[in-house]
Write a structure and sequence with these properties.
With 164 residues, the chain is mostly helical. It has two domains: 60 residues, no CATH class; 87 residues, no CATH class. Helices cover 62% and strands 0% of the residues. It has nine helices and no strands. The longest helix is centred in the middle third of the chain and has 23 residues. Pfam families: DUF4371. InterPro entries: DUF4371. This is DUF4371 domain-containing protein. Keywords: Membrane, Transmembrane, Transmembrane helix.
């Protein structure tokens, strides 16, 4: 299970990403450790790579009021709203589970299971009330199936945020 995922590409993956290993770093997880440094460098790529664009979108999202491209670029406003909606849903659920000291995963997360775990059940409950974000979260659920490592990183980051 020792897999690596790209945090930036996972959250802000570009629609037509043409970069080496984008699937491995967002859905499946990177597992070929003997070629690790070389593949990581290829994934990051040059200045205009999909990874660097995703990283820039993350930085822009983090610093919205300080970012000049955010002020001038009205074409990506819809995309930013979609990313923000996705993050707010996920962080709200993560915040609730952390504050309640509840486990994220269930023992049986198959589609036929009656209880798929706290995170997925809360996500389903929330989606029942907010139909306009279903498309975004369905993509997240596909990625979530194999990317609990990223969820663990979110958990650590969010717990540090709460502690400070």
């Amino acid at each position: 299970k020792k897999s690596a995922f790209c945090f930036y590409c996972f959250l802000f993956m570009q629609p037509r990403a043409e970069n080496y290993g984008i699937e491995a770093f967002t859905r499946n997880g990177f597992k070929s450790w003997k070629d690790g440094p070389e593949v990581f460098n290829q994934h990051v790529g040059k200045h205009d790579s999909a990874h660097n664009k995703s990283r820039q979108h993350y930085e822009d999202f983090k610093n919205q009021r300080q970012n000049l491209p955010h002020v001038f670029d009205r074409g990506s406003q819809k995309q930013e709203e979609e990313h923000k909606a996705r993050l707010l849903i996920i962080l709200g659920i993560v915040n609730f589970l952390i504050l309640q000291a509840l486990a994220f995963r269930g023992h049986d997360e198959t589609t036929s299971s009656m209880n798929k775990g706290n995170f997925k059940e809360l996500l389903d409950l929330y989606l029942g009330k907010r139909g306009e974000v279903i498309a975004h979260v369905k993509v997240f659920c596909l990625v979530l199936h194999v990317s609990f490592h990223i969820l663990h990183l979110l958990l650590i980051s969010f717990s540090c945020y709460i502690m400070h």
